[in-house]
């Protein structure tokens, strides 16, 4: 037992790491065990199995890896199905805090699941590669070009997409490494991006996170308790197609032009968004969670929330109800040749149909939102993320079997 292992002085370190003396069988046993005494951040587990995949409606973790794979030439529907079966089984183990069966690297030894989530999606090209073009959802039609786009095709799209999030960076990297190794000969990485959010416990009470412009970001997201949450985020159950219970992810690497942004006065920065920086309260009054009043005028007769304020232009009320769930990670990849930080938002937007979510909203933002002048969209991907699976099944089974 683990207790015995820990009791064998010198054989196993306090956190379960084998430091010598223990035989191979004991070492393997130690590797498979989740430390029973874990509390706090490491102990939290998100279920892998369920109606929807994880990593969508649950809150974004402190560390994220987004990556896309392209299927190897010669790959077909059967090899893709085998890969999704392998990946699903492993994701279920890792999310439960268990080491993967077979060869493990030991990177996440000692740690609990740490809210790990692994989410799988299919890009447009996947369906051609696997002879499944007739099953490609209409909602996967390419996103339109926007005037503010400066997209790097090499860092965009891809046959398969994997989103990994965890509150511990070693747990997140471990999942990334295990899944990449398991891709084997079937698929190879196309691009990968790393992001972060505030660490759990960093603030006195749980709060909406901040982005790298310093704003409280995520306040007016659809909430799982909203009556229309499922309709906005998930493909309806009665759609009868393999995407029932799934969602569409729009992934954009949005660099922030931080040097220009930081030159704005606080007042200008707040006007650009339409919310106060300190506490996220709308400029129409109240606290962070007070509904935004887009029709309120100030004493001077001007709109409290400016005509080009980001929250006005992006709001469902301004876009015939178009809405999405934003679940982003910040990124910082060092400095560019011009000295500017290569930093911003790995924007991930979830919706039942991007043609009624991201596309109309981004069209409007692109035409005249005060924030867009401080952003550069540098890569883009659109992925069909199927519903979750039951134990014994794998993600995408209804498409691939
Ligand atoms: C709201 C920042 C890009 C859609 C907000 C808010 C902030 C913000 C601070 C107010 C707080 C909140 O309700 O979450 C940013 C930054 C971006 C960015 C820094 C880029 C780096 C986008 C993009 C879209 C978008 C590309 C969609 C195409 C929205 C929506 C809201 C929102 C729908 C809520 C509006 C409402 O109903 O009040 N954003 N945003 N944002 N943003 Fe963005």
TrEMBL record:
Enzyme Commission no: 1.11.1.-
Domain Dyp-type peroxidase N-terminal: 53-197
Transmembrane segment boundaries: 5-28
Any one GO BP annotation for this protein: iron import into cell
Domain Dyp-type peroxidase C-terminal: 209-389
Entry's localization field: Cell envelope
Top-level EC class: oxidoreductase
Cofactor(s) the protein needs: heme b
Top-rank lineage group of the source organism: Bacteria
UniProt keyword Transport, yes or no: no
GO MF term list: ferrochelatase activity; heme binding; metal ion binding; peroxidase activity
Recorded catalytic activity of this chain's protein: heme b + 2 H(+) = protoporphyrin IX + Fe(2+)
Gene Ontology, cellular component aspect: cell envelope; cytosol
SUPFAM superfamilies per the UniProt record, alphabetical: Dimeric alpha+beta barrel (SSF54909)
Co-factor binding comment: Binds 1 heme b (iron(II)-protoporphyrin IX) group non-covalently per subunit.
Protein keywords: Heme, Iron, Lyase, Membrane, Metal-binding, Oxidoreductase, Peroxidase, Signal, Transmembrane, Transmembrane helix
Stated role: Involved in the recovery of exogenous heme iron. Extracts iron from heme while preserving the protoporphyrin ring intact.
Family affiliation: Belongs to the DyP-type peroxidase family.
Protein name: Deferrochelatase
């Amino acid at each position: 037992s683990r207790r015995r292992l820990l009791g064998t002085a010198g054989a196993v370190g306090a956190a379960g790491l084998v430091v010598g003396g223990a035989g191979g069988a004991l070492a393997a046993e130690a590797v498979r065990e989740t430390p029973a005494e874990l509390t706090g951040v490491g102990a939290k587990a998100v279920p892998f199995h369920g109606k929807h995949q994880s990593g969508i409606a649950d809150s974004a973790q402190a560390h994220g890896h987004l990556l896309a794979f392209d299927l190897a030439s010669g790959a077909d529907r059967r090899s893709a199905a085998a890969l999704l079966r392998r990946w699903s089984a492993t994701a279920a183990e890792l999310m439960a805090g268990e080491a993967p069966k077979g060869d493990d690297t030991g990177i996440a030894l000692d740690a609990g699941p740490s809210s790990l989530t692994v989410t799988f999606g299919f890009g447009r090209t996947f369906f051609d590669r696997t002879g499944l073009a007739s099953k490609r959802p209409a909602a996967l039609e390419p996103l339109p070009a926007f005037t503010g786009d400066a997209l790097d095709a090499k860092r965009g799209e891809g046959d398969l997409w994997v989103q990994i999030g965890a509150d511990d960076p070693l747990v997140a990297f471990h999942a990334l490494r295990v899944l990449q190794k398991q891709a084997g000969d079937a698929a190879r990485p196309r691009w990968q991006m790393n992001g972060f959010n505030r660490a759990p416990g960093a603030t006195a009470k749980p709060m909406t996170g901040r982005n790298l412009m310093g704003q409280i970001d995520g306040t007016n997201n659809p909430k799982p308790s909203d009556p229309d949450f499922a309709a906005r985020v998930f493909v309806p159950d009665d759609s009868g197609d393999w995407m029932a219970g799934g969602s569409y992810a729009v992934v954009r690497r949005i660099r922030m032009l931080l040097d220009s942004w930081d030159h704005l006065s606080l007042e200008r920065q707040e006007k650009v968004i339409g919310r106060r920086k300190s506490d996220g309260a709308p400029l129409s009054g109240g606290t962070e969670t007070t509904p935004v009043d887009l029709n309120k005028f100030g004493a001077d007769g001007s709109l409290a929330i400016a005509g080009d304020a980001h929250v006005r232009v992006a709001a469902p009320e301004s876009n015939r109800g178009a809405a999405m769930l934003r679940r982003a990670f910040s990124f910082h990849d060092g400095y560019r040749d011009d000295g500017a930080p290569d930093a911003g938002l790995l924007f991930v937007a979830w919706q039942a149909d991007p043609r009624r979510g991201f596309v109309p909203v981004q069209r409007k933002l692109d035409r005249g939102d005060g924030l867009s002048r401080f952003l550069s969209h540098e890569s883009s991907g659109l992925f069909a993320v199927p519903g979750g699976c039951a134990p014994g099944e794998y993600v995408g089974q209804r498409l691939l079997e």
